[in-house]
Amino acid sequence: MAFATRLVNREVILDKCSPLFQEKNRAAFDKLWQLLKPPVREVVIGSGDRAKKVGGKLVMYRHEFTYVNPTVIAIDVTDDMDEDTFKSRVKGVDGFTYIYIGRNLSLDMVAIRSITNDPQRFGAAVKRFAEMTNLPAILCSFNPEVIENGLMIIGKNRPLIYAASKENWKEMADLAIMYHCPLAVFAPNDLELLKSLTRTLLEYGVEDLVLDPGTFPGEGLSDTLNNFTMIRRLACVDEDPLLGFPLLGVPLTAWIGYQGQPDIGTWHETWLASMLLVRYADALIMHSLDGWSQLPLTILRENIYTDPRKPVAVEPGLRTFGSPGESSPLLFTSNFALTYYTVASDLESAKVDCYLLVIDTEGLSVESAVAGRKLTADKVSEAIKEYKVAEKVKHKKLIIPGRAARLSGELEEITGLEIMVGPMDSSGIVKFVSEKWSPQTTA
Amino acid sequence: MGQEDKGRDESKLTFNKYLIELLGKLSEIELDDVELNIGDLEISLQPSVLFTMAQLPATKPAIPERVKPTQLLTAEFKIPVAKYLSQITEVQIGNTKTQGGTRGKPIIIGGEKVPPYYLFEAITPHKPVIALDVFDIAPSLASAMKAPFKDVLGDPAEWAKKAVEKYGAEMINLHLTSTDPLIKDTSPQEAAKTVERVLQAVDVPLSIGGCGDKDKDLAVFSKVAEAGEGERLLFNSVTLDMDVKAMGEMIRKHGHTVLAFTSMDMAHARELNRKLYDTGVPKESIVIDTTTAALGYGLDYAFSIMERTRLAGLMGDPDLQHPLGSGTTNAWAAREAWLKMAPEWGPRELRGPIWETVTAVTLLLAGVDYFMMMHPAAVKTVKDIIDNLLGNHKASPEKITDWVSVRI
User: Fold this and answer.
1) Integer CA distances (angstroms), B74 to A78, A200, B194, B351, in order
2) Is there a domain that residue B45 lies in?
3) What are the mean pLDDT values of chain A's consecutive 10-residue runs (443 residues total)?
4) pLDDT tens digits for B59-86?
5) Do A11 and B212 count as a contact with CB atoms less than 8 A apart?
6) What CATH code is assigned to A317-436?
7) Is B96 a domain residue?
8) Among B74, B109, B238, B239, which residue's beta carbon has the most beta carbons within 10 A?
9) A365 → closest Cβ in B66, B293, B391
């Protein structure tokens, strides 16, 4: 029973139920699988420990159930790039990392585009890529001969083949079957064609499909969003078997018309990618590797794919940094995980010996908590008592966040402490403490 | 989410029961077996999804020899249209001369009948509107935010003018920050004069923000409401811990509108709206703001609360059928928006505005009708996006069919 509950809550996967894999339980397995299989097929791209699952979505709205399989971001290289550019871009994808709330944000794939339409050139590019990394790849060309040359090199690593179209679907399907690779289907702004293609390809024997209904920047934005939204609704609500596949967005199209204008291209690509990330894209192909583009995007992805049922909060309580004594500074902050980790990392990196009181603000940041009355003078005063601050420090001073300055008067009255209004951002704490802190009260 | 939710819950219930029965029938699954598994189950960090059954041993059905199609098979596509039970209320902000005010043209927001930008179901009746923030004293803000306005800081009338004339503000969101007893404690009379000056400087509708001190705000708002009667101002904001009755009566009496601000809690949003209805504020005078958190700093909650609020309104929740407002400038509370970081993260002059833009477009998709923003680049981008979305344009497939071989 416990297992069943966890199964329904998607905390465990069906594979964990070994008896089901016996032949006599075959019918039960099939029934369960029909019940549990997500309305959007889960497709694996790549192999080994860097393989990524895409799709597998259960719901349209993230408040219904935590979104699974965060949107993968692929960055492009081309078969006409000079070696240095090519290598530095692949390295850039491979090495991208940013620590956010204790998690490592990264980029997922490389999309290798054939600009030359020359199978040899493409093969050489794929070879260069394969020698550098085991990141999953997306092989992009509408020419089956070009794709085949790429597959001969990394076909066993399950790259995503991009793409089958109205013209080439048969040749692409043969390649997908021969190499056991997932296949993208491209039908720009034509959902009837898209469905016709998926129907045909399913009949043909290709099941791991990824759908690209076209990403149209500028004036095509409404059609782009309409198509993504309709497909996802038809998959999740109507359980249309021909549309229950992961969706691929190509924000790279935002560059068309802005070639040679990197800041503008990157700017448009970034907001377009963020809209697609919110509206159902399971994978994105992008050009910009700039930190100011990928940082907001990877953070947005992290936000959209967190569990909406629980706030990202840390335990309230009194924390120590360094080796504080009875005359070390006392500060407080909210228990919103991001606020806490930001403050904590600033205190740690600056090696400040101090006490930090973490107040239960129900997972809200200091500013929002003050505005929403989740952080009040009473609450701070209660926390001071509850966590027995007086046993640790002998001075009568409290440094409060600059964004909680509003509370200072009331806090002084209630707690009897001298309130020092600290900086607006915790990056200023070090300077503040070194310049202003003394355990003696000024009064 | 009204009916839709109910439908879902019921299906989940039968789903659970059926599943449990089914598993119960498998004699092999005894307690021991489950217990044994728990250990490795607990360490599966992520609620994982079912893996495709590739590794299913021996049970894989023999694939019947299939007849492969030689031509493209056809399939029909039908636009999926759903039913919604109610419409979001339309709210007019600002009055023209003939309506008793002095604004060039009023703004109307709301009126949606379907979820945000489900344009295949229905048009979006009114474009979302962008107000630019203007402060009555020079604010302490990141330099990238202040730079475009550095010549007008401290002069709200000139600031508003620049925001409208140069940066295309469709409304001005005037913050009477100086009325804060902890800052300058500007009197309500003085504040009303500032409002008057801004009203004369620009002819777009105006929103009036307080200082966050509930008693002082009420005093200031009352004075401004009286002096600005006929202008149909938007008061920013009324909160649950204020004297809602006094606020509501003031709004009703002088014919203004109000932003009902709550902190990421739909129950509170309903409660505040009901209190406002009780004081006689017409539904057509209420915009709701369920709190905007910055990208990376709680945007996910802000997004889901807004999305749920909008869907609930459409599905018949009588207390949530209001246009949504967003203090999008809050995006700058993210340190990544303004902090000098290592060079690989790019100049903060770009990081800041893109932060505000991404925060805005995310919430645009949740249903925001009224944006309060700051940086001109973000404002311009979001305006263009809205125009493109709602301009009745068609995609041109030929522009992207060759994207694979495009040289960038």
Assistant:
1) 34, 8, 66, 47
2) no
3) 65 66 73 80 97 96 93 98 98 94 91 98 98 97 98 98 98 98 98 98 97 95 97 96 98 95 96 98 98 98 87 86 94 89 83 94 86 91 95 95 93 95 90 91 69
4) 444 555 678 999 999 999 999 999 999 9
5) no
6) 3.40.50.11600
7) yes
8) B238
9) B293
Task: Tell me how far apart the alpha carbons of residues A175 and A274 are, in angstroms, rounded to a whole number.
Answer: 33
* Tally of domains within chain B: 1
Instruction: Find which of B1, B12, B264, B400 to mutate to test the A interface (most A CBs within 10 Å of its CB).
Output: B400
Do B394 and A19 count as a contact with CB atoms less than 8 A apart? no
Q: Please name the residue of chain B whose CA is at the shortest distance from the CA of residue A117.
A: B405
Q: Where in chain A is the domain with CATH 3.20.20.20?
A: 38-304
* Contact (Cβ atoms closer than 8 angstroms) between residue A272 and residue A251: yes
Who among B23, B47, B56 is closest to A3 (CB)? B23
Of B383, B359, B343, B356, nearest in space to B145 by CA: B356
Instruction: Give the list of residues 6+ apart from residue A95 with CB closer than 8 angstroms, or none.
Output: none
Q: Which of residues 183-242 of B touch A (CB under 8 A)?
A: 212-213, 241
Give the chain B residue nearest A163 (alpha carbons): B404
A7: closest CA of chain B, how far (Å): 9
Please list every residue in chain B whose beta carbon sits closer than 8 Å to the beta carbon of residue A172.
none
CATH number at residue B127: 3.20.20.20
**CA–CA distance, B289 with B214 (Å, rounded to integer):** 17
Q: Is B167 a domain residue? A: yes
Q: At what angle do helices A221-236 and A262-278 cross, to 10 degrees?
A: 30
Range of the domain at B101: 91-390
Whether B370 is covered by a domain: the verdict is yes
Query: Which chain B residues are closer than 8 Å to A78 by Cβ?
Result: 407
pTM of the model as a whole? 0.84
Q: What is the ipTM of this complex?
A: 0.85
